Amino acid sequence: MTIDDRWFAMQAITIMDVPSSVVYFYPRLIPLHDIDVDSNEIPSPIRCSSEKLRDDGVYLLENGIYLFLWIGLNVGMEWVQNVFGVHSAAQIDIDRTELLEIDNPLSMRIRDLIEDIRIQRHRSMRLTLVRQRDKLELVFKHFLVEDRGLDGSVSYVDFLCHMHKEIRGLLS
Q1: Which residues make Cβ contacts (< 8 Å) with residue 146, sequence separation at least 6?
Q2: Gelsolin-like domain: which residues (predicted)?
Q3: Residue 122's domain spans which residues?
Q4: Which of 24, 135, 156, 170 could form an S-S bond across to 145 if both were Cys, CB 3.0 to 4.6 Å?
Q5: How many domains are contained in the chain?
């Protein structure tokens, strides 16, 4: 993260309402590989942990400021073809900031979902494509708050357990 990114995040936090701050501190991780193309609902998010990521999966992570699309290396060829217009995850152009407008139900559903999330957040979050085992995956994993930090810091769950213990100690 650059200094500009940090400054922007600090400024954004000061004007966030409660629902926005909740998703900022605990991002939504939404599996897209099994998405129902006939539904208009946003799929249920899963726990924000790398343990939940499958090699054959695709996940959307959003925290109100950043929007990542993580693509596992073993995603089915048909899924990749329908959404990205290429034959394998290795061929996806990760420098793109928008998905191709391909005329099929899956592509339209994924693009509509991304647009729905942007509307909920009242901002056009830039889409960042992250392929499994690429350099950008470290940035993506920074937002998986249930994992230990790359610097060895405690996970969100460990922090909550620690706080619970401290509060119980104060009340005893």
Answers
A1: 47, 48, 49, 155, 156, 157
A2: 41-111
A3: 3-171
A4: 156
A5: 1
